[in-house]
Amino acid sequence: MAAVGAALALALAACGGTGGSTSSSGGNGKFNEGITSVVNASTKTGGTLRIGNAVEWDSTDPADTYYGWSWDFIRLYGRALTMFKTVPGQAGLQLVPDLAQNLGEHSADFKTWTYKLKQGVKYEDGTPVRAQDVKYDVERTLDKNTFPDGPTYFGDFLDTKGYSSPYKDKTPGKLGLKAIETPDDNTIVFHLKKPFAGFDYFAMLPATIPVPQAKDTGTNYKLHPVSTGPYKFESYTPGKQLNMVRNTNWDPSTDPNRKQLPDRIQVQIGVNADDLDNRLIAGSADMDIQGLGLGAAAAAKVQSNANLKKNADSAATARLDYVAISSSVPPFDNVHCRKAVEYATDKQAMQTAYGGPLSGGDVATHLMMPLIPGNQDINPYPSGADNHGDVAKAKQELQACNKPNGFNTIISARTERPKEINAALALQQGLKKVGINAEIKKYPTGDYFKLYAGNPEYVKKNGLGLIMMSWGADWPEGFGYLQQIVDSRVIRSAGNTNLGVKDPAVDQLIDKATVTADTTARGALWAQIDAKVMDDAYIVPFLDEKHLLYRPPSAKNVYVNQGLNGYYDYAQLGVK
Amino acid sequence: MVNFLIRRLLAAIALLIIVSMVTFAIFFLVPRLTGASSADLASRYVGKSAGPQAIHEVEIRLGLNRPVVVQYWNFVKGIIVGAHYDFGPSKVYCAPPCFGYSFINQTPVWPDLLDRLPVTLSLAAGAAVIWLVFGVTTGVISALKRGSAVDRASMGVALAGVSLPIFFTGLLSLAIFRDNLQWFPGAGTYVGFTQNPATWAANLVLPWVTLAFMQGALYARLTRAGMLETMGEDYIRTARAKGLPERVVITRHALRATLTPVLTIFGIDLGTLLGGAVLTEGTFSLPGLGKFAIDSINNNDLPRVLGVVMIGAFFIVLANLVVDILYAVIDPRVRLS
């Protein structure tokens, strides 16, 4: 059925959009130009930026959102304390002040962080932004009953002393959280319960976008967040459409990182993903907000047509696809059996399952990827010249594991993810060559971590030895990428994303990295962690994901921002 | 006739109650029977980083720890008298008919259903008129011109219509008529009838025709078969022998008998469509009930799924009720029975 669907889609792509290609094949860009430079640069104002969204937001409330594309888009209507520099190339990995005057000043023990706010920043209604409003939004993020979707970094690191919600707060102004002080309207001080040298990354999160308490409508705030950015909500109907217009109280002199070029921004929600690809190619849409890249049909069309390909970028992301090896499931309690899987895996076939080099990604040989500072290119388990697997080495490891004839195990994968299922099939075929017989079990995506693969008891009881996994960094840095998948102390009874890495040495290195201020030295520590996890063979990385993004010539100032994990930067787009 | 109507209405209400029970059981009882705890169900409504305490609080707040019978009763009570929900900063009153509360989107289900309904009604009504008119007309002509080139061509087209999936014909029509010819530049977006009737119709032409192409093909084949059978009946010969004009024989005698089974299918099809034309809405990016259902299923948003199932069941039951009444108009023998 899927094959028939794909064939039809390909046929459709072949015949669709020809007339529109007049507009779609224009522009002066080159293939991959958006990765290193600004394409279709323009300072002209006016027009409507037409954005398509195949899904729905988790929330447009800064306290309640965790999608990467939402963190990119939210900068159009919200300013956090810091942000990633809005430039192409490696410079985009650099944090710069946004609402704050400078990056954070920290105490010697990295437990106190102070930010001074810029003067003159206003909300859309013209009232000035205060440090108390930043504190108020951080307080809101602690209320996981009201705002369940956002990350928990502030709750994990702030010395909250049991503070759980501003809605239960009886103090005047609902600013009772002692872990954050606001000595005046322009100063905010965070007190952490454990040292963290990378706090400026937390300050970049939407949680520090100010929310005026008087305008807070709780769960309905998402319908009209009060803007501090260049655009404000005009109308928003969840599931249907979001319309934004210029925020006349946004002052560019306080904001060197954003542009306010289009008159309007219109996001149509729930657009058919294949149709959205066709709209981009035909020129009737300017941007796909999700930034996951073109679907199979459109990707094939773009790759085979030079006039279209010049408008595309194969953008590296901070997302790794890998196989987690359950060290609690025999025989994977033996490191040699884990290493046998490392060698036997046919990574090339798994890469093909994800769409090949341009729209799938590069074969991965370790956890970190070039986007992550400190990345060292290591390959502890070379899998042959074509990455099809090293059968001889795998068999040697099986000998060392006392399983010379192989063994049986189970691979888990998510039912609704066809690429993952196909990669599991490729893994199964590769392992079969060395006598490891793996049965594939599929589980619903929604419950994958809570009930099945992320539930250690279930994993052990049901013998899930190999778990298909995909992990994207919250931000491209060691902590934001690796901590949740390799720190053994985050493992709970359910809902885990660390699926089996339990190494005290790794935990110690993480602790060391979190108190290392020098970014180069910190990056080197994360590289050590990467090497250690690989040495223990807990994870079989197979793909550093790339997305084949399409930028219609109608979209101006387009480039990939590395700090945003490889999305196009929405803060500077224009259409004229 | 009144008795007949009362009987059918009571049966319809009973059917809706049974559907609600079965649907509720599927979502809230079956998971428990298969070993999932109420905490497991609650974990779907908290963020991915939530700890056991947060999950437990949600479990209590949503009442998932209560017996399923109590939960069902609260659901039914909400439909009749409304319900109160206590979420964070404010208490939410869900006015009757309260078809539950989406804990994921933090909105009552009923207003969202009402918001999506006009889209689905617009799609279904327009497509139904097209497929009924063209389907039946084509079927009649094919039957009367049996074996002719017209018959073969129209049945060939009908076969294609039945065979081609709507996600293919839909995307193809968008590529040709919107992107290439640019006849319907707004296709793929929905504009409300009250906002701009002309744009509403222009944007819906492609989904109407695409949906009608698939459905109409079925009706053409059904009508053709029915007409062929009816035209061979004795009473048709009698009607002709009486000297009635051929037009009267076809429309008053043959077509009337043929329409009875067509109407039965039409009732079910229209009712099903009103519950959400899942593929058509998905293909043409129309924010109707079908799209709403799919998004809700993908998000594990059970109260919303339950709401869509109920409204879908309501329309199927309603459409069948209307068909039963129309039967009585078309075929007077129904009233006697």
Lay out the secondary structure.
The complex is a heterodimer of chains A (576) and B (337).
Chain A lengths: L1 H14 L5 H4 L8 H4 L11 E6 L14 H6 L8 E3 L10 E3 L7 E2 L5 E5 L14 H12 L10 H5 L22 E5 L2 E5 L7 H4 L28 E7 L3 E6 L17 E6 L3 H10 L4 E2 L7 H8 L2 H4 L2 E14 L9 H10 L2 H7 L2 H4 L1 E3 L27 H10 L7 E7 L3 H15 L4 E7 L4 H5 L3 H7 L3 E7 L5 H9 L17 H11 L4 H17 L3 E12 L9 E2 L5 E2 L8
Parallel strand pairs in A: 1-10, 1-11, 14-15, 14-16
Antiparallel strand pairs in A: 2-3, 4-5, 5-7, 6-7, 8-9, 9-10, 12-16, 12-17, 13-17, 18-19
Chain B lengths: L1 H32 L4 H5 L9 H10 L6 H14 L1 E5 L2 E5 L6 E2 L4 E2 H36 L4 H15 L2 H15 L16 H35 L2 H8 L4 H29 L3 H6 L5 H10 L3 H29 L2 H4 L1
Antiparallel strand pairs in B: 1-2, 3-4
Helix pairs in contact in B: 1-13, 5-6, 5-8, 5-10, 6-8, 7-8, 8-10, 9-10, 10-13, 12-13
Termini separation of chain A: 43 Å
Helical coverage of chain B, percent range: over 70%
Please provide the count of β strands of chain B.
4
Chain pair sharing the greatest interface: A-B, 54 and 54 residues
What is this structure, in a nutshell?
The complex is a heterodimer of chains A (576) and B (337). Chain A has 576 residues and is an alpha+beta fold. Helices cover 29% and strands 18% of the residues of chain A.
